[in-house]
Amino acid sequence: MTTSTPTIFYAANVFTSQTRTSQKNVQQTIKNAAIVVENGMITWLGIESDLPEQMKNECKTENEYRFTTGWLTTGLIDCHTHLIYGGNRSGEFKQRLEGVAYKEIARQGGGILSTVKATRQETEDELFDSALKRLHQLRSEGVTCLEIKSGYGLELDAEIKMLKVARKLAVYTGLDIKTTCLAAHAVPEEYKDRADDYIDYVCDQILPEASQQNLVDAVDGFCENIGFNTKQISRVFDKAMELGLPVKLHAEQLSNQHGASLAAKYSALSVDHLEYLDEDGVSALKVSGTVAVLLPGAFYTLRETQKPPIEQLRKYQVPIAIATDSNPGSSPCNSLLLMLNMACTLFQLTVDEALMAVTTNAAKALGLEATHGQIQVGMNADFVHWDVKEVDELCYYFGTNPCTKIFKNGEPLKE
Ligand code: NIG
Ligand code: FE
């Protein structure tokens, strides 16, 4: 961004996503708002009638946007995706409909490992093309920032290939993409019954190389009885610390392995899934300031009946985020709006909680809270305009997309 000519956004209704608890001057909604943007950043925010004349005059008419109806929000953030993968698992979907459990399919060498096989076979270009289609679907619903995990390579070259594709998607689309190395996702076939040896390989080769090539922003793992135990995960996290990388964890999805408490000890950015999280785990998250990421798409697909402990998360004021978990197994879904609806209907999140969960709290789950997730002075000018009468409608509808216009760093997003 070279120009310093300001752009002004006038909007009948703005949902700022500012956190209510943060003292004075918190305005979660603003009517008849004006937002001044310079060099891609918000420099003034308030009611149009309070906008200083001088600012108004500095702005050329071609640098003005006026939304007389609808709502403006910050760009949505999908803080947990496995967007890059080869093939799909519709065959396993049919098996599950016939009553075979997700865990059972995984134990038979299907599940994650079948996607590993397909992903290893595809070229970087092939993976890029299919992931781009999914990214376009997310973006069409106002997603301007997202996280993409590796974890379907499970060998050095294939993990690097996935992470390179994620970096290329960011350059190509202009969206903000955080990459996460999830090499500790499953034990690959060639390490069958040698999980500890595989963890050695992850720590000695995959993580250092990915980090060396500047391909990774965070490190994740799957802590589960069909994944890795806490001892193995802590070795991965120790390596991440050594490399100066923050951590996250797939935790308490299918059983309580106390992964969340372990992740909290490493000041994890987020722990994700959490259906089997207990109160000790919740209180550990409170202490570490870790975000609880809920993934209603996986809950729904696996026909889980145990809900994440929402009441306890509220009681301990743990920030809650929601994400698609877009992946070919447990959540073949590229709609963050649908996740908003599901989080409300399936987990009884309030509309306000759900909106904060895909903005402010999702930014925090990616370590981006200083620049993303709110319409506030000093933050990135990422905006979405929605054709709705009330902002609540973003959670209320499903299978409907009221997004009309997207701005990234104050500029309209190119198609
Ligand atoms: O977030 N839980 C583990 N990993 C993914 C699922 C991956 C898959 O089934 O391919 C998840 O649900
Ligand atoms: Fe996941």
Which terms would index this structure?
415 residues; alpha/beta; 4-stranded antiparallel beta sheet; 37% helix; binds N-(iminomethyl)-L-glutamic acid; binds fe (iii) ion
Secondary structure layout:
Blueprint: E1 7-15, E2 29-38, E3 41-47, H1 53-58, E4 64-67, E5 71-74, E6 76-78, H2 90-97, H3 102-107, H4 112-121, H5 124-140, E7 143-149, H6 156-173, E8 176-184, H7 195-212, E9 218-221, H8 230-242, E10 248-251, H9 259-265, E11 270-273, H10 279-288, E12 291-294, H11 296-301, H12 310-315, E13 320-322, H13 336-347, H14 351-357, H15 360-365, E14 383-386, H16 393-396, E15 403-408, E16 411-412
Parallel strand pairs: 1-4, 6-7, 7-8, 8-9, 10-11, 11-12, 12-13
Antiparallel strand pairs: 1-2, 2-3, 5-14, 14-15, 15-16
N-(iminomethyl)-L-glutamic acid binds at residues 111-112, 115, 222, 250, 253, 298, 325, 327-330.
Could you provide a short overview of the structure?
The protein is α/β, with parallel strands linked by helices and 415 residues long.
Structure characterization notes:
This protein has 415 residues and is of the alpha/beta class. It has 16 helices and 16 strands. The chain has helices at 53-58, 90-97, 102-107, 112-121, 124-140, 156-173, 195-212, 230-242, 259-265, 279-288, 296-301, 310-315, 336-347, 351-357, 360-365, 393-396, and strands spanning 7-15, 29-38, 41-47, 64-67, 71-74, 76-78, 143-149, 176-184, 218-221, 248-251, 270-273, 291-294, 320-322, 383-386, 403-408, 411-412. A hairpin with a 2-residue loop joins β2 (29-38) and β3 (41-47). The longest helix is centred in the middle third of the chain and has 18 residues, at 156-173. The structure holds N-(iminomethyl)-L-glutamic acid (NIG) and fe (iii) ion. Fe (iii) ion binds next to loops. Fe (iii) ion is lined by residues 80, 82, 250, 325, 327.
